[in-house]
Amino acid sequence: MLSTGALRAHLLAARLAGPVATSREVSLRSYRLFAARDPRVTLGLDPGRGWGERELLRLMADKCGVSGDPAHVAGPDVIDPERTMAGLDAFAGRLADAAVRGAPVLFGTGHPHRLLGFYAALADALSAVGCTVLTPAQGRRIDITTRFGVRTYNLDYVRGVALVREPGARVPGGGTGAHTHSPLPLRVALEAAADARGPLPELVVGDHGWVCGAGQLGIEAIGLADTDDPALFVGEAEGRVAVAVPLDDAVRSAYYLPLTRYVLNRACLSQ
């Protein structure tokens, strides 16, 4: 098993924690937009109360380890690796609980180019111990509002992990898809599962709108989040997101492999 010391060293070396690629300017802009209830940043979460910029900054300093100084407005943002490791332990604990009870699980990502392999390995492991990995609404069309206007995507699954892709971009079930923050794919998947009278997820694993959208609906949700994703940490603070793990969510996909091994070992799901 990867030791905590080795994991901490990897987090820093790969810039998954410590000084990360996400800039302070980008993070502060996200906090301003979240305080204004901009749906591009709330990710499907309807906060239970108002969150001002200063309060969000204090929350992110507590949850992620970013600087709580509002006068610090430039340079790389920082994630405390100790908080990342604590988050991964809690994340693994939720997976272990799902495995014990054989819970149906839904995986989804808005970062398929980076995080697909991480989630797919977890889906494989849960499936191997008897959990149903759900794949509702395969191929369903979804119109998502982006900064470029309304774009049409198709919902697809790769190794049990949901993602969206532009129509005709790649063959279904292969390759990677598009980057998205939207909670609409999660809602479409849940609606299809309900219409089919099949099982509904007892746990949603992912990022962005997959986690916040599920948490908003009262479904247990765990995921990964960067310093410019305050919605997941607000959801955690308000009790609607079970676990939000602070880390850079856009480094090379291979850099998440040690995290995969660590989480599977902590959850007692290693093959």
Secondary structure layout plus pairing:
Elements: H1 4-13, E1 18-23, H2 24-35, H3 39-42, H4 53-63, E2 76-79, H5 81-101, E3 105-108, H6 112-128, E4 141-146, E5 149-158, E6 161-165, H7 184-195, E7 203-207, H8 208-216, E8 220-225, H9 230-237, E9 243-246, H10 257-266
What descriptive keywords fit this protein?
271 residues, alpha/beta, 10 helices, 9 strands, globular
Structure description:
With 271 residues, the chain is of the alpha/beta class. Helices cover 42% and strands 18% of the residues. It has helices at residues 4-13, 24-35, 39-42, 53-63, 81-101, 112-128, 184-195, 208-216, 230-237, 257-266, and strands at residues 18-23, 76-79, 105-108, 141-146, 149-158, 161-165, 203-207, 220-225, 243-246. A seven-stranded mixed sheet has the order 4-5-6-3-7-8-9. Strands 1-2 form a two-stranded antiparallel ribbon. Strand 8 (220-225), helix 9 and strand 9 form a beta-alpha-beta unit. Helix 4 crosses helix 9 (230-237) and helix 7 packs across helix 8 (208-216). It is globular.
